[in-house]
Design goal:
- By secondary structure, the protein is mainly β.
- Strands 2, 4, 5, 6, 9, 10 and 11 form a 7-stranded mixed beta sheet that branches. It has a 4-stranded antiparallel beta sheet with strand order 1-3-8-7, with no helix packed on it.
- A hairpin with a 6-residue loop joins strand 5 and strand 6.
- The protein is globular.
- The protein starts with a strand and ends with a strand.
């Protein structure tokens, strides 16, 4: 079955950086588009970024464009999210999601990793 395990979250000061990882198993990762979403405290899921199966096409929410970069290493079955110039409003639980490119179906997601941006 689909298994996704996020890691790399933590507490960081505004302006800092973090790199999230998502280890995938139970499906053919190299055939799957992937998405990052986040859930701020008390709020609904927010789409953050997506990437096609070979990594040639990416897209970002306006709120993170220019600061976050999504990438993948299909040889390692791993998805990444490099987050730079973090802001307090980026505080959320971040999830990687296996879902068709452009889909808002977040059924297949990991347990999430907490990112807290605070001074």
């Amino acid at each position: 079955q689909v298994q996704l395990v996020e890691s790399g979250g933590g507490l960081v000061q505004p302006g800092g950086a973090l790199r999230l990882s998502c280890a995938a198993s139970g499906f053919t990762f190299a055939d799957s588009s992937m998405t990052w979403v986040r859930q701020p405290p008390g709020k609904e899921f927010e789409w953050v970024a997506r990437i096609t199966h070979l990594g040639y096409i990416t897209a970002y929410a306006d709120s993170v464009k220019g600061r976050f970069t999504v990438s993948r290493d299909n040889s390692k079955n791993t998805l990444y999210l490099q987050m730079n110039n973090l802001k307090p409003e980026d505080t959320a639980v971040y999830f990687c999601v296996k879902t068709p490119y452009g889909s808002a179906d977040y059924t297949y997601r990991g347990q999430g990793t907490q990112v807290t941006v605070s001074s």
